[in-house]
Amino acid sequence: LFRSDWLSPQAGKSADYDRFIAGLDLTTNEAGARLTVERLALAAQAAALLEMDSPSAEAFIALRLRPRGMAYGAYEAQVDQRAVLERAMPA
Q1: How far is CA 15 from CA 20, 34, 37, 65, in A?
Q2: Nearest to 47 by CA among 7, 2, 90, 88
Q3: CB-CB neighbours of 40 under 10 Å
Q4: What is residue 25's three-state secondary structure?
Q5: Chain centroid to CA 41: how far?
Q6: What is the Cα–Cα distance from 35 to 2, expressed in whole angstroms?
Q7: Residue 52 needs a FRET pair 20 to 30 A away by CA distance; which of 8, 18, 30, 67 works?
Q8: pLDDT per position in the chain (91 positions), as tens?
């Protein structure tokens, strides 16, 4: 229900987002609940950014929803860091 009512309307805006949403398994047991909640929180953040057509949406999705290394800064995504910083700290 949650996935279809709030996350699905953003489908089609990002292939990485679509893959992440399709991979959500909400039929978890107690042991997997924390990981499921973490993934739902990431999906909700991405959905909010996509809904607002935020220029930071693709950067967030690339850095948080794609597979990545576990070390700080270990990612392959190409992010327009200047655009992200300008949005966060307008002149």
Answers
A1: 9, 25, 22, 11
A2: 7
A3: 16
A4: coil
A5: 8
A6: 16
A7: 67
A8: 455 678 889 999 999 999 999 998 888 888 889 999 999 999 999 999 999 998 789 889 988 998 876 677 777 777 788 887 887 888 7
pLDDT for the residue numbered 1: 45
Dihedral over alpha carbons 41, 70, 73, 64 (to 10 degrees): -20
Map residue 23 onto helix, strand or coil.
Answer: coil
For residue 46, which of 73, 89, 9 has the smallest C-alpha distance?
9
Q: Alpha helices, DSSP H only, in the chain?
A: 2, 15-22, 33-51, 57-64, 81-88
Q: How far is CA 38 from the centre of its chain?
A: 11
Tokens standing for residue 29: 């047991």
